[in-house]
């Protein structure tokens, strides 16, 4: 795994968690209304600022996943 791939995987994991929170908060039935021709625009996702402890947890998860492949 190159450094670029590593940071891409870390970023994808962080924003994937934010997307899950948005879906759960919006509700499965309302997702289509929110995304398809919505006047509200795309859902807002703030740039994440992770504490070191959270980052290390994600890094550990990524390395364990890589070993399983």
Automatic annotation (TrEMBL):
Any one Gene Ontology cellular component term annotated for this protein: chloroplast stroma
Superkingdom field: Eukaryota
Main location: plastid
Keyword Lipoprotein recorded: no
GO molecular function (one): ATP binding
Keywords noted in UniProt: ATP-binding, Chloroplast, Nucleotide-binding, Plastid, Transit peptide
Domain (Ribulose bisphosphate carboxylase/oxygenase activase AAA helical): residue spans on this chain: 5-61
Protein location: Plastid, Chloroplast stroma
Family: Belongs to the RuBisCO activase family.
PANTHER family: PTHR32429, RIBULOSE BISPHOSPHATE CARBOXYLASE_OXYGENASE ACTIVASE, CHLOROPLASTIC (PTHR32429:SF32)
Function in brief: Activation of RuBisCO (ribulose-1,5-bisphosphate carboxylase/oxygenase; EC 4.1.1.39) involves the ATP-dependent carboxylation of the epsilon-amino group of lysine leading to a carbamate structure.
Name this polypeptide is given: Ribulose bisphosphate carboxylase/oxygenase activase AAA helical domain-containing protein
Species annotation: Solanum commersonii (Commerson's wild potato)
Source organism phylogeny: Eukaryota, Viridiplantae, Streptophyta, Embryophyta, Tracheophyta
């Amino acid at each position: 795994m190159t450094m670029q791939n590593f940071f891409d995987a870390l970023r994808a994991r962080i924003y994937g968690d934010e997307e899950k929170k948005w879906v759960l908060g919006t509700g499965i039935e309302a997702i289509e209304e929110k995304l398809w021709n919505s006047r509200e625009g795309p859902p807002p996702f703030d740039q994440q600022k992770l504490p070191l402890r959270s980052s290390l947890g994600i890094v550990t998860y990524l390395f364990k996943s890589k070993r399983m492949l």
